[in-house]
Amino acid sequence: MYAEKKLLNVKNMILCALFVALIAIGAFIKIPVPVCPFTLQLLFTTLAGLLLGARLGFTAVIVYVAVGLIGIPVFTQGGGPSYVLQPTFGYLIGFAVGSYIVGILTEKIARPSLVRLLTANFINLLIVYLFGMIYVYAINEFYLNTPIGIWPLFLYCFVLAVPGDIVLCIVAAVLGRKLIPVVRK
Protein backbone atom coordinates (compact mmCIF):
# COMPACT_ATOMS: atom_id res chain seq x y z
CA MET A 1 0.00 0.00 0.00
CA TYR A 2 2.85 2.40 0.80
CA ALA A 3 4.38 1.87 -2.67
CA GLU A 4 1.06 2.81 -4.34
CA LYS A 5 1.12 6.22 -2.67
CA LYS A 6 4.59 7.08 -3.92
CA LEU A 7 4.72 9.46 -6.87
CA LEU A 8 7.08 7.32 -8.93
CA ASN A 9 6.13 3.72 -8.30
CA VAL A 10 6.61 1.23 -11.16
CA LYS A 11 3.11 1.72 -12.58
CA ASN A 12 3.50 5.51 -12.60
CA MET A 13 6.96 5.34 -14.18
CA ILE A 14 5.58 3.12 -16.96
CA LEU A 15 2.62 5.45 -17.53
CA CYS A 16 4.93 8.50 -17.61
CA ALA A 17 7.25 6.78 -20.08
CA LEU A 18 4.27 5.80 -22.22
CA PHE A 19 3.10 9.39 -22.38
CA VAL A 20 6.60 10.69 -23.11
CA ALA A 21 6.63 8.31 -26.10
CA LEU A 22 3.10 9.27 -27.18
CA ILE A 23 3.91 12.98 -27.03
CA ALA A 24 7.04 12.38 -29.13
CA ILE A 25 5.03 10.39 -31.66
CA GLY A 26 2.40 13.13 -31.66
CA ALA A 27 5.08 15.65 -32.64
CA PHE A 28 5.71 13.77 -35.87
CA ILE A 29 2.05 13.44 -36.83
CA LYS A 30 1.66 16.96 -38.16
CA ILE A 31 -0.22 19.05 -40.66
CA PRO A 32 1.83 22.01 -41.87
CA VAL A 33 0.26 25.35 -40.99
CA PRO A 34 2.21 28.63 -41.30
CA VAL A 35 4.30 29.47 -38.19
CA CYS A 36 2.92 26.78 -35.82
CA PRO A 37 2.38 23.28 -37.29
CA PHE A 38 -0.70 21.33 -36.16
CA THR A 39 0.34 18.16 -34.31
CA LEU A 40 -1.17 15.59 -31.97
CA GLN A 41 0.98 16.76 -29.07
CA LEU A 42 -1.95 18.65 -27.53
CA LEU A 43 -4.01 15.46 -27.49
CA PHE A 44 -1.34 13.47 -25.67
CA THR A 45 -0.31 16.20 -23.24
CA THR A 46 -3.97 16.76 -22.36
CA LEU A 47 -4.51 13.04 -21.86
CA ALA A 48 -1.40 12.93 -19.67
CA GLY A 49 -2.98 15.47 -17.32
CA LEU A 50 -6.39 13.82 -17.44
CA LEU A 51 -5.24 10.25 -16.91
CA LEU A 52 -2.14 10.68 -14.78
CA GLY A 53 -3.18 13.70 -12.73
CA ALA A 54 -1.40 17.00 -12.22
CA ARG A 55 2.00 15.89 -10.94
CA LEU A 56 2.51 12.85 -13.15
CA GLY A 57 1.07 14.54 -16.24
CA PHE A 58 3.39 17.49 -15.69
CA THR A 59 6.29 15.09 -15.08
CA ALA A 60 5.64 13.25 -18.36
CA VAL A 61 5.63 16.50 -20.35
CA ILE A 62 8.74 17.84 -18.59
CA VAL A 63 10.60 14.57 -19.25
CA TYR A 64 9.59 14.84 -22.93
CA VAL A 65 10.91 18.43 -23.07
CA ALA A 66 14.13 17.41 -21.27
CA VAL A 67 14.67 14.52 -23.72
CA GLY A 68 14.34 16.96 -26.61
CA LEU A 69 16.58 19.58 -25.03
CA ILE A 70 19.41 17.09 -24.48
CA GLY A 71 19.50 16.57 -28.24
CA ILE A 72 17.18 13.70 -29.09
CA PRO A 73 15.07 14.98 -32.02
CA VAL A 74 11.61 14.47 -30.52
CA PHE A 75 10.26 17.96 -31.21
CA THR A 76 8.44 18.88 -34.42
CA GLN A 77 11.60 20.52 -35.76
CA GLY A 78 14.36 18.47 -34.14
CA GLY A 79 15.86 18.92 -30.69
CA GLY A 80 18.83 20.19 -28.74
CA PRO A 81 19.39 23.03 -26.27
CA SER A 82 19.11 25.67 -28.99
CA TYR A 83 15.47 24.67 -29.45
CA VAL A 84 14.59 27.18 -26.72
CA LEU A 85 15.24 29.81 -29.40
CA GLN A 86 12.61 28.34 -31.74
CA PRO A 87 9.45 30.45 -31.83
CA THR A 88 7.29 27.41 -31.07
CA PHE A 89 9.12 26.46 -27.85
CA GLY A 90 6.53 28.38 -25.83
CA TYR A 91 3.93 25.81 -26.79
CA LEU A 92 6.05 23.14 -25.09
CA ILE A 93 6.07 25.20 -21.91
CA GLY A 94 2.32 25.63 -22.30
CA PHE A 95 1.88 21.86 -22.69
CA ALA A 96 3.56 21.28 -19.32
CA VAL A 97 1.60 23.98 -17.48
CA GLY A 98 -1.64 23.01 -19.20
CA SER A 99 -1.19 19.34 -18.36
CA TYR A 100 -0.72 20.28 -14.71
CA ILE A 101 -3.85 22.46 -14.68
CA VAL A 102 -5.95 19.78 -16.42
CA GLY A 103 -4.81 17.33 -13.76
CA ILE A 104 -5.73 19.70 -10.94
CA LEU A 105 -9.18 20.29 -12.41
CA THR A 106 -10.00 16.61 -12.83
CA GLU A 107 -7.92 14.38 -10.55
CA LYS A 108 -10.03 14.66 -7.39
CA ILE A 109 -13.14 13.26 -9.13
CA ALA A 110 -13.29 9.51 -9.77
CA ARG A 111 -15.58 9.86 -12.82
CA PRO A 112 -15.55 13.47 -14.05
CA SER A 113 -18.44 14.46 -16.28
CA LEU A 114 -17.93 15.14 -19.96
CA VAL A 115 -18.73 18.81 -19.33
CA ARG A 116 -16.04 19.03 -16.64
CA LEU A 117 -13.50 17.30 -18.91
CA LEU A 118 -14.33 19.62 -21.82
CA THR A 119 -14.05 22.66 -19.55
CA ALA A 120 -10.67 21.51 -18.25
CA ASN A 121 -9.46 20.73 -21.78
CA PHE A 122 -10.49 24.14 -23.13
CA ILE A 123 -8.77 25.88 -20.20
CA ASN A 124 -5.70 23.81 -21.08
CA LEU A 125 -6.03 24.91 -24.71
CA LEU A 126 -6.10 28.57 -23.69
CA ILE A 127 -3.03 28.08 -21.49
CA VAL A 128 -1.09 26.37 -24.28
CA TYR A 129 -1.97 29.10 -26.78
CA LEU A 130 -1.25 31.88 -24.31
CA PHE A 131 2.26 30.56 -23.60
CA GLY A 132 2.84 29.74 -27.26
CA MET A 133 1.72 33.07 -28.69
CA ILE A 134 3.60 35.14 -26.11
CA TYR A 135 6.76 33.14 -26.84
CA VAL A 136 6.34 33.47 -30.63
CA TYR A 137 5.93 37.21 -30.22
CA ALA A 138 8.92 37.57 -27.85
CA ILE A 139 11.32 35.44 -29.93
CA ASN A 140 10.36 37.21 -33.15
CA GLU A 141 10.57 40.64 -31.56
CA PHE A 142 13.71 40.31 -29.42
CA TYR A 143 15.78 37.47 -30.85
CA LEU A 144 15.03 37.03 -34.54
CA ASN A 145 14.51 40.75 -35.15
CA THR A 146 11.47 39.95 -37.28
CA PRO A 147 8.67 41.69 -35.38
CA ILE A 148 5.23 40.23 -35.86
CA GLY A 149 2.11 42.31 -35.38
CA ILE A 150 -0.68 41.30 -33.06
CA TRP A 151 -3.13 40.53 -35.88
CA PRO A 152 -0.72 38.26 -37.86
CA LEU A 153 0.25 36.58 -34.58
CA PHE A 154 -3.40 35.98 -33.72
CA LEU A 155 -4.16 34.78 -37.25
CA TYR A 156 -1.24 32.37 -37.70
CA CYS A 157 -0.84 31.17 -34.12
CA PHE A 158 -4.49 30.96 -33.10
CA VAL A 159 -7.14 31.27 -35.81
CA LEU A 160 -5.50 28.86 -38.27
CA ALA A 161 -4.46 26.30 -35.65
CA VAL A 162 -7.26 26.30 -33.07
CA PRO A 163 -10.02 24.48 -35.03
CA GLY A 164 -8.03 21.24 -35.12
CA ASP A 165 -7.06 21.64 -31.47
CA ILE A 166 -10.70 22.13 -30.49
CA VAL A 167 -11.41 18.75 -32.08
CA LEU A 168 -8.47 17.28 -30.12
CA CYS A 169 -9.92 18.69 -26.87
CA ILE A 170 -13.23 16.97 -27.61
CA VAL A 171 -11.48 13.69 -28.47
CA ALA A 172 -9.42 13.91 -25.26
CA ALA A 173 -12.57 14.51 -23.20
CA VAL A 174 -14.35 11.50 -24.72
CA LEU A 175 -11.27 9.29 -24.26
CA GLY A 176 -10.73 10.64 -20.75
CA ARG A 177 -14.32 9.84 -19.77
CA LYS A 178 -13.75 6.20 -20.75
CA LEU A 179 -10.12 5.79 -19.61
CA ILE A 180 -9.94 7.72 -16.32
CA PRO A 181 -11.73 5.01 -14.29
CA VAL A 182 -9.46 2.34 -15.79
CA VAL A 183 -6.10 4.13 -15.43
CA ARG A 184 -6.72 5.63 -11.98
CA LYS A 185 -7.58 2.28 -10.33
Automatic annotation (TrEMBL):
Pfam families: BioY. It is a multi-pass membrane protein. Keywords: Cell membrane, Membrane, Transmembrane, Transmembrane helix, Transport. One of its GO terms (cellular component) is plasma membrane. The keyword GTP-binding does not apply. One of its GO terms (molecular function) is biotin transmembrane transporter activity. It is found in: Cell membrane. InterPro entries: BioY. Its main location: membrane. Coiled coil: none annotated. The chain crosses the membrane at residues 12-29, 35-53, 58-76, 88-105, 117-138, 150-175. It comes from the Bacteria. Belongs to the BioY family. This is Biotin transporter.
